C-alpha cells in the first residue's frame, strides 16, 4: 500500500545541541577554543547563543504552537560533571525540568549525550585520544540515565562521530586543532568504544530505553563516472566517512581500516534505531596534489542549488541513504536535515523535497519513524558563529528575538496534517548551467 501522507504517530520535531543554543557553557573545550583569536567567524562566541538555558519553556511553547510533537536536544557533559566524578545536582535538576517541560507539552524528547563538547577536564586528559575517555563517557551516560531515564525513551549516545574525528583531527578547525589522520582514526575507535560501553550501561539500567547514534552520512559520487581514479577516491571517502562505523556496529567489532590499528569488540547489537543526519553530496575528483585529502578534491556540480555554506541541495541522497540503511534492520529517525539559508530562499522547497524523498523510501518499505529538522532557530554554528542561519525561525543574538520564517510556517502545516504540499516554487535565479563544478566547502 502506498502512503500519500506520513503516519499519525510519526515524530515531527527540530534538533538542537546544548552548546549551540544554551549560552553560558564556559567549562568545555569549545568555549576555550572560541576564546582564541581567529577561530570563529566574526569573533563570535557561544555566549549568549539563544539563551535557551533560561528560556526553554517559552521556546518549547513556540515549538508546540508550530504543531511539533517531538524535540531533539543535548545535555551538556561539562555542566553535569564539572569535575571528574562530581555530578552537579543543579545541572541534573535543570535537565529534569527541561525534559518535564517537554513531556507536559507532549513533545517527545530525544536526548543526545555527546554533541561535540567535552568538559575541560576531559580534554585536558587527552579527550578522545585517551582510551579512558570511553569509560568516563559511559559512566557519565549511566548517571544521566539514572537521573533522567524515567523522562525520556530515545537516547543518542554520539552526534556525528566521524564529523568530530574529521574536523578536530584532520582539518584541525575544531578543538583540539590537530591535523593528523592517524589520530583521527584513534579518535573514531575511541568514540565507537564509548558508544559500545554507554549502550551496555544504559540498557542494563533501562532495558526499554531506545539507543542509537546520529550518523552524519553523505553521498560521495565520482565527478567523472568513467574515471577509475575518481571512482576509487570517492569509494575511499565513502568507506572512511560513512561505512566503517556502520559496519563496525553491525559486526560488533572494528571494521577495516580501523581494524588494522586496534582490536575492539562491542555487543552484538548496539543500536535500537539508526539516527541519520543528512545534508548533502560531494562530487569527488582525483587530485594528486592533495595527499592530505587522500588525493580527493570535493566539488559541487555545475548549476546545483547551493546553501549559504556552498553545500549542494541534493534530496535524492536522503532517499538513497534511507534505502541503504533499511538493510541494517533497525527503524530510522532522521535526526538532522537542514540548510544554511539566511533569506529562506531554498528552505521551503528543501523541506518538501527531502520529505518527499523520505515518503518515497517509506513507500518502498523503509521504516522511518521521525524527522527532526536542523534547526528551530538560528544558533551558534561552531566555526561559522552566528553567520550560518539554519533556523525555521530567525534569531537575533543581541535582542534574543525569534521570528518565524515562511519555511517555519510551512513545516508547521506539514507537522499538523502529515501531508506534503503539491509543489513549492523553486528559488528564483538558478545558477548558469554551463558553470564549472565549484569546490565544496570542506565541512
Ligand atoms: O550545527 C550542526 C550540528 O551541530 C551537527 N550537524 C550539522 C549541523 C549544521 O552544520
Work out the radius of gyration: 21 Å
Number of helices: 13
Largest sheet: 8 strands, parallel, barrel
| End-to-end C-alpha gap | 39 Å
Helix residue percentage: 25-40%
Mean pLDDT: 96
Low-confidence stretches: none
CATH superfamily: Glycosidases
Can you offer a commentary on this structure?
This protein has 443 residues and is of the alpha/beta class. It has one domain: Alpha-Beta Barrel (TIM Barrel), CATH 3.20.20. The protein has 13 helices and 12 strands. It has helices at 18-21, 29-34, 52-65, 77-80, 89-104, 120-124, 132-148, 161-171, 181-205, 228-251, 315-326, 347-363, 406-417; strands spanning 11-15, 70-74, 108-114, 154-159, 210-222, 274-286, 296-300, 332-336, 368-373, 393-395, 402-404, 438-439. The protein has an 8-stranded parallel barrel, surrounded by 6 helices. It has a two-stranded antiparallel ribbon with strand order 10-11. β10 and β11 (402-404) form a beta hairpin. α7 runs parallel beside α9. It starts with 10 loop residues before the first strand and ends with a strand. 5-hydroxymethyl-3,4-dihydroxypiperidine (IFM) is lined by residues 17, 20, 160, 277, 336, 374, 381, 390. Residues 17, 20, 160, 277, 336, 374, 381, 390 line the site of 5-hydroxymethyl-3,4-dihydroxypiperidine (IFM).
